[in-house]
Amino acid sequence: MSDNKDNLDIQSGTSASGSQHTKDPITVAKESVVEVAKKHSAKDFLLWLIAIIAMISATLVSQYLPRYWAPANNVWTQIAITVSLVVFGFICLAFTNQGSAFKTLLKDAGIELRRVTWPTKDETARYTWQVILIMIIFGIIIWLLDMFFSYIVGLII
């Protein structure tokens, strides 16, 4: 990102003319996402371990839990426990350094998506028809090549 206008002119909270914005400023992380993701700590190790155990447990709920807990014979109970374990695993991952880096990456992607110039409805329709036409042309070419090589192989065999 460049230093000046890339943060939609609201990172500092003032515009080029010096007037105050009414919106809250968007702050971009001071550390790069890669630096944050490469940090490791005991907390991260523990959270990753808990998340992995929760995800593995979520896959084994329907097979093993009904043997030890009678209410788990109900399919909706199994679904609820599985979903709960998956959500718990993702929450654990969100609190790791890698999860923090991922949240920053998503925030930066949102900022970039606001800058995209999307095609109009007419452009989208025109591009779609162009792609369909090219696919038909290449399909016919490949079909003709297939017929030609099948004929050649038939003559050889």
UniProtKB/TrEMBL annotation:
Q: Which GO terms describe its cellular component?
A: plasma membrane
For this UniProt record, the keywords arranged alphabetically read as follows: Cell membrane, Membrane, Protein transport, Translocation, Transmembrane, Transmembrane helix, Transport
| Annotated transmembrane regions | 45-64, 76-96, 131-156
Which residue ranges are recorded for the region named Disordered?
1-23
Q: Where is the composition biased (Polar residues)?
A: 9-20
Stored Pfam families: SecE
Keyword tRNA processing among UniProt keywords: no
Does the record bear Heme in its keywords? no
InterPro entries the record matches:
SecE_bac, SecE_sf, Translocase_SecE/Sec61-g
Molecular function GO labels: protein transmembrane transporter activity
Subcellular location, in the record's words? Membrane
Gene Ontology terms describing biological process:
intracellular protein transmembrane transport; protein secretion; protein targeting; protein transport by the Sec complex
Assembly behavior: Component of the Sec protein translocase complex. Heterotrimer consisting of SecY, SecE and SecG subunits. The heterotrimers can form oligomers, although 1 heterotrimer is thought to be able to translocate proteins. Interacts with the ribosome. Interacts with SecDF, and other proteins may be involved. Interacts with SecA.
PANTHER family with a match to the protein in the record: PROTEIN TRANSLOCASE SUBUNIT SECE
What's the stated role of this polypeptide? Essential subunit of the Sec protein translocation channel SecYEG. Clamps together the 2 halves of SecY. May contact the channel plug during translocation.
Indicate the family of this protein: Belongs to the SecE/SEC61-gamma family.
Name of the protein in question = Protein translocase subunit SecE
Organism whose genome encodes this protein: Moraxella catarrhalis (Branhamella catarrhalis)
